[in-house]
Amino acid sequence: MAQLIHGSDYNPEQWLDRPDIIDGDIRLMKKAGMNSMSIGIFSWSVLEPEEGKYDFSFLDMIMEKFYQNDIKAILATPSGARPRWLAEKYPEVLRTDSLGRKQVFGGRHNHCHSSPIFREKITAINTLLAKRYKDHPSLFMWHISNELSGGCFCPRCRKAFIDYLKKQYNNDLDKLNHDWWTTFWSHTYTNWEQIEPPSPLGDTNLHGLNLAWNRFITHLCADYIKTEVAPLKEITPNIPTTINMMDMFTGLDYEVLKDEVDIISWDNYPHWHSENDYDAAIKADFAHDWFRSLKHKPFFMMESTPSLVNWQGYNRPKRPGMHILSSLAAVAHGSDSVQYFQWRKSRGSSEKFHGAVIDHCGRDDTRVFKEVSELGKILQSISDVAGTQIKSEVAIIYDTQNRWALDDAQALCNKDKQYFAQVLDHYRALRKLGVNIDVIGSCQDFSSYKLICAPMLYMISEQNANRLKDFVKNGGVLVSGYFSAVVNENDLCYLGGCPGGGLGEVFGVWAEEIDTLLPGNTVSVADEQNTYTAADFCEVIHPTTAKTLLKYTQEFYQGTPAACVNSYHNGKAYYIAYRDSGKFYDVLYDNITTELGICREKSVLPYGLLIQKRGGLTFVGNYSENYIDFIIPDGSYDIVSGSQGRLSLQPYGVLAITKKE
Ligand code: GAL
């Protein structure tokens, strides 16, 4: 039977001297409608207090209680944090920073991923965990480590980097010198051993090196995950694995890591009520769509807060309704779970004031507990949605490696080239129309979409450019614009004009130069009827075969095209040469989606309302502080409230609309 997971990170190892609290926890979990707990994430020092001396008694006890109470266990491998003995006896497990400083014991998530000792020790404990619980009926999923991130600059990692490069370059150092353009500033390598990772003490200006190092960090992390997963897959081949990924994290390329695990999961902490809630919701939806599109399968929202966090500038409790609204948004976008950090507030240390289902008071009559319990019931009532796929006719390309290269480029506005903000602008215009959207990397398959938006796709390989070309040839509509297809996958500029990689022909334009506007400055652009506003960047372009849609009406480029469309074989390609402040994208996507017959709402949604469809349900959320009128179509009703017909949706209200039987 389909089931949505409702769960939480649970740290009973902090309460082993309080069996009354642990027993109370289990009772309250049932009361709150929780069916899964993530355990053991930071338990290494309890599970292996001394090297080779293991004690699984607390896990045995908890797993048994879960079994008795029909609660699933998402069992973590304990490498989120290491025990002291490990660092003390084997300092090689500690990271070295880019200035060559070795860390001392402390913190978490900061092991050297190339350390053979670390890998040996984690393999040993993972093997024991898998053997011990392989037949345990509660074992549901493996949670590998916690929020993997970061790199190490120790001599062993440096050697691994050089070995990686030798393999990538088939031992051809000349090719590497060419790709990294090392003749610049006389940086030519004459032997492999000269290669150092990027460092403020050495090279930060070889952009090819920076890009290669970022790729290597992801490669090493993937290799590390393989080490952790190997014993688990050997002993428990049917138990799925996951790593909990982080919101729009740029330190690793998740498009690469996705293949190392069975299920994508991520930790979702929007800045509710400290930034504009509608904007925060758009960002959270975008992230959900990104994580879902990694495997094009349902994912897990592994962490979220039931109330507030403790690490934002202003830590504000979710307003009444926001918890249910934001949790159902995750489900609407493809999550098969709503999970929290954390079940119970810890009594001491840095997370003691982080939101939890159970506060220090231990009560179940709090506002938070009641909302969590109410959500538990709602999740049961919509459980049929679990496992259902989301079909999108539209994709937006958001590419982590492109972001690395773009952020690294010394150009435009160095402080912020606004890549993510620009991608979000396109996303928002489409979400205003209630369109379901996939968010994909530039290596993914394009063939199933009608419309692809690829804003600021600065770095693209010729191979992927060709695939985009084919997409348009075969009838697809492509939207891109300024500073796109500028460099190839090695960060070398395309010669012969931009957009490069053959895309100039598709867009029917070539770009001559780009203007960076100062903060607060704008430039007008217009067609015969309407005027729009450009901010941040204005590119000067020349149509070759494209038709002009808008022209600049100011600046030295006054009268030249600001937006064009080109018919290319069976499809069309739009090139928007400037950063629009929003209105033109609204018009553009209204027209394109209508023309392509893309599934959308009949009219533009009122501000604050977001709609997403999944598995026969239409989720409608109000992210504003106002009531919004909404009509539930005849023959349908809201599962959450039972409402039908015309209604006034309250602030932070949500509907899950389905057809009547
Ligand atoms: C996550 C982390 C959790 C907890 C949480 C607090 O990033 O995985 O362990 O620290 O943040 O919001």
General description of the model:
By secondary structure, this protein is α/β, with parallel strands linked by helices. The chain has four domains: 312 residues, TIM Barrel; 51 residues, no CATH class; 203 residues, Class I glutamine amidotransferase (GATase) domain (Rossmann fold, 3-Layer(aba) Sandwich); 51 residues, Immunoglobulin-like. It is built from 17 helices and 25 strands. Strands 9, 10, 11, 12, 13, 14, 15, 16, 17, 18 and 19 form an eleven-stranded mixed sheet that branches. An eight-stranded parallel sheet has the order 7-6-5-4-3-2-1-8. Helix 6 packs across helix 8 and helix 11 runs parallel beside helix 12. It is globular. The relative contact order is 0.09. The mean pLDDT is 97. Bound molecules: beta-D-galactopyranose (GAL). Beta-D-galactopyranose binds next to loops.
Number of extended strands: 25
- The CATH top-level class label of the largest domain: Alpha Beta
Shape: globular
Q: Please summarize the sheet with the most strands.
A: 11 strands, mixed
Distance between the termini: 19 Å
Bound molecules: beta-D-galactopyranose
Q: Per CATH, what is the topology of the largest domain? A: TIM Barrel
Domain count: the total is: 4
C-alpha Rg (nearest Å): 26 Å
Please report which band the strand proportion falls in: under 5%, 5-15%, 15-25%, 25-35%, 35-45% or over 45%.
15-25%
The CATH homologous superfamily of the largest domain is named Glycosidases
In short:
This protein has 17 helices and 25 strands. It is α/β, with parallel strands linked by helices and 661 residues long. It has 4 domains: 5-154 and 224-385, Alpha-Beta Barrel (TIM Barrel); 158-208, no CATH class; 394-596, Rossmann fold; 609-659, Immunoglobulin-like.
